[in-house]
Amino acid sequence: MFFAKLHPLLVHFPIGLLVTGTLFELYGNFRGEKIVAKAGSFNIKFGFWCSIPVAVIGFFGLMSLELKDEFKPFVAKHLLFTFSTIIIFFCVILLSRFRYKTWCNVLHHFLLMVGLFTVLNAGFYGGELVHRFNLPAGIGN
Questions:
Q1: Where are the alpha helices (DSSP H) in 11-101?
Q2: Do the beta carbons of residue 52 and residue 1 sit within 8 Å?
Q3: Which residue from 17, 20, 94, 96 has the highest number of Cβ atoms inside 10 Å of its Cβ?
Q4: What is the pLDDT of residues 66-100, one digit of tens each?
Q5: pTM score above 0.85
Q6: Burial class of 121 by CB neighbour count within 10 A (0 to 12, 13 to 18, 19+)
Q7: Quick one: which of 61, 51, 67 has its CA closest to 123?
Q8: Is the peptide bond before 136 cis (omega within 30 degrees of 0)?
Q9: Residues 115, 119: Cα–Cα separation, whole Å
Q10: In angstroms, rounded to a whole number, what is the distance separating the alpha carbons of residues 81 and 87?
């Protein structure tokens, strides 16, 4: 139960880094402001590395909860978008090394936008689990 209560407290930091990093990098690249793009790239890398332990804590927290049928679809979508976010931002970081090629640059920007979509959806479904279904406080008390 400890991990289930810890996860919602920690998850906001990597979400904030990934969202601001994506917005900064897209804005900086499209407006030609290299410093803003570099700050965004840093936020994305830092947010990605911070998201790994937070996801592991969330997984341990999920294992300590009794899953009821009413919120299983929300848990499934939260997991889907969470793992998609981690994989997409891993690909973004890998592609950033080859951005001198045009097709890599286009794919990099596309994955940034898809990553922004997935991180926001993971946050939405996680917020629904906490606020609509009162997880983890509503279980085991």
A1: 12-31, 34-63, 72-95
A2: no
A3: 17
A4: 888 999 999 999 999 999 999 999 999 999 988 88
A5: yes
A6: middle
A7: 51
A8: yes
A9: 6
A10: 10
